[in-house]
Amino acid sequence: MGRKSVKAKERKQKRKEENAKLAASSVKVEAANKIEDPLSMLEPFKKYERRGLSVLISCVKAGDMDKDTVDWVFDLTKKNMQTLQVFKLICNVLGYETSDWGWKDRDKRDEMTEDKAIYLLVRDTSDKLVAFVHFRFDLECDDEVVYCYEIQLIEEVRQKGLGKFLMQILELLAHKTEMKKVMLTVFKHNTEGYDFFTKTMKYEVDEISPEDPVFDESFSYVILSKKIQPRKTQQT
Ligand SMILES: CC(C)(COP(=O)(O)OP(=O)(O)OC[C@H]1O[C@@H](n2cnc3c(N)ncnc32)[C@H](O)[C@@H]1OP(=O)(O)O)[C@@H](O)C(=O)NCCC(=O)NCCS
User: Fold this and answer.
1) Contact at 8 Å (CB) between 160 and 52?
2) Structural domain total, the chain
């Protein structure tokens, strides 16, 4: 038979490169998931004392979380989501289009307690939980990322810079573990959350987000992300 066409060779080469890239990304995600306490890489970030707040931050894998903490995380998420539902109803009454989103207790609990789930837990000086972040080191479309599944604060500790501080922790963890970006999904009707991520934290609509957040009403959520500067390789 004749020689393979140049195009076929190029395709093969491209496939090879893609496979090698995927393998390298998987290795990074695996390595990050093996770190017992990711926050141990960021000791100064275990405490937040600003604007009248004094809280301690710890990091725990979902599998090591006790039932009371799982219940608290679940209840706070549900409560905050229900507030959004009320907002959505008001929008509907006023005639604004809103898309639907579902909440199923069982599914949410399963998602929150999956092995890959990692939590930043925030406690005040009396050891009361006041906020949490659920995140994962994962592959998203073959890219190594930190995916922020949830960031939830009780009302009393909001607007004091804590949300920003927690997101900065995720970005630093992404940097330290060589993840490419931090990603998250936000409901479009959560205007406060959307503004927080886009205006304050400078997240942008990710290329895999299913639609244009402003013009297309067919999806209820937007996928946002922020690219993380790669670590400088050490000179020998
Ligand atoms: C969204 C949320 C995480 C923000 O955390 P936070 O601690 O309240 O925000 P911060 O105090 O760190 O805000 C930092 C900046 O973001 C901006 N910002 C915060 N909340 C905002 C809001 N509701 N609307 C507009 N801008 C806001 C402010 O400009 C603030 O700037 P400042 O530092 O000059 O005051 C928090 O309000 C929350 O848990 N909300 C309920 C749950 C939720 O919606 N989660 C996000 C989707 S998963």
Assistant:
1) yes
2) 1
